[in-house]
Amino acid sequence: MPETQDQQKFVYDFTEGNKDLKDLLGGKGANLAEMTNLGLPVPPGFTITTEACKVYLDSGSEPAALRDEVSAHLEALEGKMGKKLGQADDPLLVSVRSGAKFSMPGMMDTVLNIGLSDESVAGLAAQAGDDRFAWDSYRRLIQMFGKTVLGVNGDLFEEAIDAAKQTKGVTVDVDLDAADLKKLVAEFKSIVAQETGRSFPQEPREQMDLAVRAVFDSWNGDRAKLYRRQERIPHDLGTAVNICSMVFGNLGPDSGTGVAFTRDPASGHQGVYGDYLQNAQGEDVVAGIRNTVPLADLEQIDKRSYDELMQIMETLETHYKDLCDIEFTIESGKLWMLQTRVGKRTAGAAFRIATQLVDQGLINEAEALRRVNGAQLAQLMFPRFDEEAAASDAVRKIGRGIAASPGAAVGKAVFDSYTAVKWSRSGEKVILIRRETNPDDLDGMIAAEGILTSRGGKTSHAAVVARGMGKTCVCGAEDLEVDTKRRRMIVPSPDGKDDLVIEEGDVVSIDGSSGKVYLGEVPVVPSPVVEYFEGRMHAGADDADELIGAVHRIMAYADRVRRLRVRANADNAEDAARARRFGAQGIGLCRTEHMFLGERREMVERLILAHGDEERDAALGELLPLQKKDFVELLEAMDGLPVTVRLLDPPLHEFLPDITELSVRVALAESRKDHNENDLRLLQAVHRLHEQNPMLGLRGVRLGLVIPGLFAMQVRAIAEAAAARRNAKGDPRAEIMIPLVGTVQELEIVREEAEQVIAEVERAHGVDLKLSLGTMIELPRAALTAAQIAESADFFSFGTNDLTQTVWGFSRDDVEASFFTAYLEKGIFGVSPFETIDKDGVGALVRDAARAGRATRPDLKLGVCGEHGGDPESVHFFHEVGLDYVSCSPFRIPVARLESGRAAANGR
Q1: Cβ 765 vs Cβ 732: under 8 Å
Q2: Helix axes 677-689, 659-671, angle to 10 degrees
Q3: Is 868 a catalytic residue?
Q4: Strands 94-100, 334-342: parallel, antiparallel or unpaired by DSSP?
Q5: Is residue 136 within 8 Å of residue 255, measured between CB atoms?
Q6: What is the SS3 string spanning 519-542?
Q7: DSSP for residue 171
Q8: Strand order in the sheet with 481-483
Q9: Among 324, 475, 590, 865, which one carries the catalytic annotation?
Q10: Which end of the chain has less neighbouring CB within 10 Å, N or C?
Q11: 726 in helix, strand or coil?
Q12: CB-hemisphere CA count at 13 Å for 863?
């Protein structure tokens, strides 16, 4: 029977919980309970559960039973402390702090010193023997409560403090005496009254109840929602509220507050790391109002507390078996623990700490694998800017776009591919700047250090190709006006009078990790991790960084335990060789259309313009030896490993000149009476092949069915290349993939023709090629009829890019720039479905098609070749549904290897 509100327990004492109750008590409450259980010095208190928050957020009011439960726990706390909340002569004061399951530092609200009032401030002063301390604590309460609970502009309080210091002729808060702070309290109360129309509440329980509601409300604050979207934290978890008896770090020089880490969160190195601030409360450390001292200095300030803290840090790290982040306060020489959690860390620290903990015997290799992730590995692989240099006056930030492909790139601005290639060959480093890129820009993109576009999103052409090459890319920098004709970029000024013009040759820097664009050269720091994957640096070498050793060990373990194989999306021998160095176990997608660009484009034009079989066969005959050479090189680079070649997929108009450019060319020629018969025929072909929605038109398998001999030529080239490699004592393992199949009849016709061609080649060369034929599943109908299609397929490769487009009804190149931002902000998407597989929609089709296909053909090989194949979260999904391999761009192969291992480790 489901638990009703009346039966539910909404409040837990710190003595009742433990670290495994994060869902219910939040991370902070669960860890306070755990430290209490360990016998560590934790101020007494209790936690209001996330369930109470969820009821409040859903209904607009607290659960009916909550007030009585809180009263009972407050009464118990008062009994334990020997004083009552806000008691006039000796007040119990409490803090009210948020604490969600996942750490969201600074995103939600906290109020300290609850219980102080005009009456009890005198009692606090008398008990502490310090008027200044009491009035400072009251000042802090009104300031935090006013800003957090009552919504008063925090700047008003800061301005009042600044004015008080100016009047006194001092520069820091601690130089204000009790009389100054008493005046400030009066001024703060006046600000509250003026801004809210009510006086500051004097009743302690009202203060506490209002603060609890404010913490609940902060779960849906703008900054909290933005943080959750960024970190992919679910929006329905709610936050717990921790009510804890106050301990004071601002009682004098023998008091203070600090933050400690059991290891360096930046590097992972063991040692004493943290900050300490004498005579202060916790928010002073965070706000940076006063300069802290290194934690190691505490040994000279208060050796007894320092030694106790070191013991506690060792206890916590051994208990949690991880880097711990600790907040503590010393009150008159007595150490109190206010919080601990598994600490956030840099990517490099994550890998180092994981292997250190294995060596210490605290965790095993499987747990070490769970402690790191693909996103961290990707961060380690990209070159990065020196952050201090980027913030200096030597460079100027001029814009920001979408962080499409991580890394840091510096070079001279160029505005077309020809110039990029030309300057690059002359030894110049260049940044290719375009409004948007297309396949014709490939040479320039390869030559450039990085790519900057003013249009497009994370899955635009520029972004997808750049990620595949491991090239830094910033897309959609809409504030920058790219003028390719005049070879310049304009950075508009707010008044429109002092626009900044960046000419070709000016040096720019782009940060693909943040999307920031700079004028000038920002120094970059190279990545040794890429050098390791390239084979230019070895983990056991004398000069190898400790980080390289950590990455090597974790990758080796991931490779040992993973079930999913990892292939590469690669179209040429160079990419294939790099992919193999990065650990690829074959090619999952070779896009043959990329082989038809450059000088070969004219041959494709002749194929399109062919009149009759003779001209068409001649055009195909020109392409055959070139295709064969491509495949020989590819099969040689991947000798002994599978190579899946996708037959021609894109619409033919992509191989023809732009309709506008060609129309102008023809019109100008006619005005000069200089008729160009070829241009006229091209223009007619462009008009003939023009489609309103070409991605759903004449492409994929439809090309093979409509243009006689096209697919047969490609199959022959693959078969002859495999035969050549076999005769050269190689081990070619080619797989032929037919794209965009929607019905088994399409596949049957193409397969029959392909098998005839393969048989001819086998007879001619006297070899058995063992070529397999399969299809891409990239249309909903193909997924839904997978059982039928499997009858004629040796393998399925899920083309999740197009499958996502067709399931959602999205045009990928259009929607990201137009409304995806709004969808993300409104919570319709947690993340773009083009980045991470949509499990409920696209994923369901993949799961069902895999199951249906294997029911027809148990030995059916299953893979994925969309960009999702390199996305960490998607890799885990593909592992769960039983695919055999994922395929992704060469640069993402280590990430896919790592995540495949993590998926296997999680299942153990």
Answers
A1: no
A2: 150
A3: no
A4: unpaired
A5: no
A6: ECCCCEECCHHHHHHHCCCCCCCC
A7: S
A8: 481-483, 488-491, 500-503
A9: 865
A10: N
A11: helix
A12: 33
Within 10 angstroms of residue 823's Cβ, the number of other Cβ atoms is 14
Catalytic residue flag (residue 461): yes
**Among 813, 773, 463, which Cα is nearest to 646's?**
773
Read off φ and ψ for residue 851, nearest 5 degrees: -65, -45
For residue 537 the two structure tokens come to 């640096």
Q: CA dihedral in degrees (822, 231, 34, 2; nearest 10)?
A: 40
361 three-state secondary structure: coil
Q: Is the pTM of this model over 0.70?
A: yes
Strands 516-519 and 396-400: antiparallel
Q: Structure tokens of 31? A: 């860890």
- What order of strands is seen across the sheet that includes strand 396-400? 396-400, 516-519, 507-511, 408-414, 430-434, 450-453, 472-475, 402-405
Q: Which two tokens stand for residue 32?
A: 């306070």
CB atoms within 10 A of CB 503: 12
Paired tokens of 629? 């050479």
38: Cα separation from own chain's centroid: 36
Catalytic choice (73, 244, 461, 473): 461
- Please report, for residues 197, 674, 682, 753, the alpha-carbon distance to residue 665 in angstroms, rounded to integers and kept in the order given: 72, 11, 11, 40
Helix, strand, coil share (%) of the chain residues, nearest 5: 50, 15, 35
E strands, 360-512, where? Answer: 384-385, 396-400, 402-405, 408-414, 430-434, 450-453, 472-475, 481-483, 488-491, 500-503, 507-511
CA 843 to chain centre: 20
Q: In the predicted model, is pLDDT for residue 469 greater than 90?
A: no
For residue 2, what pLDDT band results from cuts at 50, 70 and 90? very low
CA angle 683, 684, 686 (to 5 degrees): 60
Q: Are 812 and 805 within 8 A, CB to CB? A: yes
pLDDT digits (tens, 9 = 90+) for 370-429: 999 998 999 888 877 887 777 777 788 999 988 877 778 999 999 999 999 999 989 999
Residue 227 CA from chain centroid, whole number: 12
Q: What is the DSSP code string of 12-80?
A: EETTT--TT-HHHHHHHHHHHHHHHHTT-----EEEE-HHHHHHHHHHSS--TTHHHHHHHHHHHHHHH
At residue 149's C-alpha, the angle toward residues 11 and 88, to 5°, is 75
Query: What single-letter amino acid sits at 469?
Result: M
Q: Mean pLDDT, to the nearest integer, of 242-252?
A: 92
252-267 b/e with 16+ CB inside 10 Å = b? beebbbbbbbbbbbeb
The answer to whether residues 866 and 842 touch, using CB atoms and an 8 Å cutoff, is no
Q: Rounded to an integer, what distance in angstroms lies between the CA atom of residue 26 and that of residue 108?
A: 13
- The amino acid at 766: G
Taking only the tens place, the pLDDT of each residue in 717-761 is 999 999 999 999 999 999 999 999 999 999 999 999 999 999 999
pLDDT tens readout for residues 589-634:
999 988 887 778 788 878 877 788 888 899 899 999 999 999 999 9
Number of C-alpha atoms within 13 angstroms, CB side, residue 61?
Answer: 5
Decide: helix, strand or coil at residue 178: helix
